[in-house]
Amino acid sequence: MDAPTLPVTPDPGPAAAPGVNDLPALPPTEAGNASLEGPQHSRERDQQAISYHYDVSNDFYKLWLDRRMVYSCAYFPTGTETLDGAQEAKLDLICRKLRLQQSEYLLDIGSGWGGLAIHAAQRYGARVLGVTLSEAQLHEARARAGAAGVADRVTFELRDYRDVLAHAPEGGFDKIASVGMAEHVGRRNMPTYFRAAYTALKPGGLMMNHAISDGIPQARVPLWLQSGNFARKYVFPDGQLLPIWETVKHATEAQFEVRDIENLREHYARTLTHWAANLETHHAEARAALGEQRHRLWRLYLGATSHYFEKGHLGLYQTLLAKPDEQRRAHVPLSRADLYEG
Fold it and tell me: Residue 111 gets which letter from DSSP?
């Protein structure tokens, strides 16, 4: 669920990304404005926020995502990949970084439409528990697991990450993946998020935290596109980005050891370009699904965020975290060469 969220940073620079001024004007009314109830980042309000964005319509997302419906940054190792190929490469990169093995138990936090869980079961023989707050995603993911023939190894549940300990196997999960979910946690709850993950992971296990962050210090985002003025109101209610140093701080305070960090922001710029092009190809169906005003917002959202990843206003970090075993060993190779072999 790694959909891009626009950052909150002051801006002395240009008013908009190239091409953004060519898009239709923003709605003059509050139509499409998310209206949530309850304390921010409470279980109940998080459920509402996730539903607002991800329960729009499975058919709408099928118009412009890849065939696996992976709604997160793809990986273009050569730059020539199709969107389908790049998303498969990203799923495999995550499994490789986790050094996922046959029969290991993987927890997929924010499992979306099931792309990673199904890939891990098919390609690596893993058992997977995927948790999401989106009912639309839950039903689609279960159907896809059945169609892929891995329903006996993959389970999807409607669960809050804070309740994940209730579903941990004896001794903990072997591996944990959180792809595009941390952006929905909120700064206040980050310590709880990493503590829960650390507790659910068995000693010697690895966690992949794949999340959008604030960009480089030189980059600033226009005021009209700040989260408080646009994304939080119309696209991602309660979404909040942290700089990478703050994510690392919370992870290490939860006793994780950081083993690898990689910024894939250029890959997300390419991903968004593909998504925006697909949305334009299916503009009539998308407009019918969303309505005129919300369709305009989605066009703006995809077009602008591609530009901001390209220019460094936003980052996309894959952070590999280890829970050392009793001998303080982190079970990773001495080099990263295995990530790129074969």
Answer: -
